[in-house]
Amino acid sequence: MSKGTLYDKVWKNHEVGKLPTGQTQLFVGRHLVHEVTSPQAFEMLRERGLNVKHPELTTAVVDHVIPTHDLSRPFQDSQAELMTKTLETKIKEFGIEYFAPGSGKQGVCHVSFPEQGLILPGVLAVCGDSHTCTYGAFGALSFGIGTTQVSHVLATQTLAMDPLKVRKVEFNGELQKGVTAKDLALYMINQLGVEGGVGFAYEFGGEVIDSMSMEGRMTLCNMAVEGGARSGYVNPDQTTFDFLKGKAFAPKDFEKAVAYWKSIASEPDAEYDDKVVFDVSEVKPMVSWGINPGQAVEIDQKIPYLDNLTDKQRSEAEDALNYMGLKAGDQIAGTPIDVAFIGSCTNGRLSDLEAAAEVLAGNKVSVKTLVVPGSEEIKYLAEEEGLDRIFKEAGAEWRYAGCSMCLAMNPDKLEGYQRSASTSNRNFKGRQGSPTGRTHLMSPYMAAASAIAGKIADPTPYLRGK
Amino acid sequence: MSDKFIIPENQIIELKGRGIPKPANDQNTDDIVPARYLKEITFANMGDYAYFDERFKDGKPIEDHPFNDPKYQGATILIGGANYGCGSSREHAPQALHRYGLNAIIAPSFAEIFAGNCASLGVVGVTVSPQDATELADFVKQEPSTKILLSLADKVIRYDGKSIDLDISEGRRQAFLNGTWDAMTVLQQKEERVKGVIQKLDYLNL
């Protein structure tokens, strides 16, 4: 059993007690809701005749179904309108804070909530969304839950859980040009497997993480769940505190808060259930070729030969290549694409857009390219910097904030057998809206370079600096 | 099936039913219910969408898909592969399987969020060794009409004269045995202690 880790401390701080079943009842310090998985939970409350216990600890946003090209209401898609309206009615009824479209705070939940300072170190945060693990970047203990559990949190501000084990994952070395947090996430999942983290929370550390920005940490923690870990986190440090200072929802007594935040970090002699150390000095920009995020290679590598795989990997790879229309042994670079998507809770932050703009500046895209800011605030900041002009001059579409083409619950979808260069987090079959659509996961640098080339391309020739 | 959201609780001690084989590894929640069907505000129709993109092509059913194949109709126990239910937190996925007619899933391993969602619906998820899972799936393919017994009381699965060990977290097993798998009722009983946690949580008062 782990001991002295941030996970252990935050878990203990939130323990209400043991349930008759032996599971632990945990208090939830911050509950986030969106329109896909939570309106039904309010109905569960209604059926039981229950109320929302702590509306002041819950915040809501609309992100999955919101269109990114036309925000006028009612939305053209009547189902999207009904979902949004249902959520809006419920949060009004119960007095829950809402980051409404047009308020300046709306955006993809895992982008908007942290950027407003709602997610703090040491908080136990849950949301009916698997990428809630993003908040671990702040040293919060955060994980996705289902709708019935959302109803538990609404009614009692608690939920029933079994503890996870803790695996320390260290990234050491100096990153090569063009290698980002997204590339490290794909590398880690490739190495440990999409099932590798089942039963674990991941504590990310090492010199690469120590010098990584909060945005990079969010990208990495966001992908923890793609490697099977329900939760991933980084111990809070000066980078965390500097990010939070001055945010709308940051604590008023900031110095006192910092002292508390420092106290919940893992002890130097903390004990872990497992430890993995990566030297990532040689890692190159990564791209997925298959139908799960672990099926990925470096940009200059070939799609694996089936003979080089284990039995389990081989049957999955055959299915993946068949679906993706690719051949084992082919170079991944040069694969023609139809669409590029830059955005999502993984890579829709300002630094992601700046990265894409660095590549796109002075170039033209040769395929349909969507650039979708993760939030209204990011849209505003990007326009202040003139990024929107760079995107438009390159021929890309500059959209309103939302989940967009990550999961196609809104008008942004792949069609037919279209192949996408995507900065999102899942390359599952049908994920981007067409049951036969094909997704390649990559960083914003690579998505931008691929948009220009019209095929999967190494971004490093476009990058300045070292 | 009911358009009510709450599924009434009952004690689950053992289940007996026919199997349906779905043994591939890493089946994700987008496979189980594609995102475009998440736009309904109730779960009532989810059973119709179970494995939709695998089951139908150009609007026509793919006949040998287990969820379409007549020989598995009426099955209640799914035999899955490793990391079953990975991906999103959408409860729509276990809701779809449950409303299709399943009440148990046997697999070598489950994604965590999916397993929790199954439990809160009263869908019993248990793990067995990869070899046992493969043998059971193969048996079901050969003998689809033979019933499988899943005993939570004895932590065992019995079929064809064989007996294999199953694993499940003890907390979850007790919740099924006691009929408290939707934790709402038990969570409501500790209000005073919740107040105590709120008082001592530093960050709530900063």
SSE layout:
The complex is a heterodimer of chains A (466) and B (206).
Chain A: H1 6-13, E1 15-18, E2 24-27, E3 30-33, H2 39-48, E4 58-61, H3 78-94, E5 97-99, H4 109-115, E6 124-127, E7 141-144, H5 147-156, E8 158-161, E9 165-172, H6 181-192, E10 200-205, H7 207-210, H8 214-222, E11 231-234, H9 238-244, H10 254-263, E12 274-279, E13 286-288, E14 296-298, H11 311-324, E15 339-342, H12 344-347, H13 350-360, E16 368-371, H14 376-385, H15 387-393, E17 397-398, E18 419-422, E19 438-441, H16 444-453
Parallel strand pairs in A: 3-4, 3-6, 4-5, 6-7, 9-10, 9-12, 10-11, 15-16, 15-18, 16-17, 18-19
Antiparallel strand pairs in A: 1-2, 2-8, 13-14
Helix pairs in contact in A: 2-5, 6-8, 13-16
Chain B: E1 14-22, H1 29-32, H2 46-49, H3 52-55, E2 56-57, E3 60-61, E4 77-80, H4 92-100, E5 104-107, H5 112-121, E6 124-127, H6 130-142, E7 147-151, E8 156-159, E9 162-165, H7 170-178, H8 184-187, H9 191-200
Parallel strand pairs in B: 1-4, 4-5, 5-6
Antiparallel strand pairs in B: 1-7, 2-3, 7-8, 8-9
What does this structure look like?
The complex is a heterodimer of chains A (466) and B (206). With 466 residues, chain A is an alpha/beta fold. Chain A has helices at residues 6-13, 39-48, 78-94, 109-115, 147-156, 181-192, 207-210, 214-222, 238-244, 254-263, 311-324, 344-347, 350-360, 376-385, 387-393, 444-453, and strands spanning 15-18, 24-27, 30-33, 58-61, 97-99, 124-127, 141-144, 158-161, 165-172, 200-205, 231-234, 274-279, 286-288, 296-298, 339-342, 368-371, 397-398, 419-422, 438-441. In chain A, strands 5-4-3-6-7 form a 5-stranded parallel beta sheet, with helices on both faces. In chain A, strands 17-16-15-18-19 form a 5-stranded parallel beta sheet. In chain A, a hairpin with a 7-residue loop joins strand 13 (286-288) and strand 14 (296-298). The longest helix of chain A has 17 residues, at 78-94. Chain B is of the alpha/beta class and 206 residues long. In chain B, helix 4 (92-100) crosses helix 5. The mean pLDDT of chain B is 95.
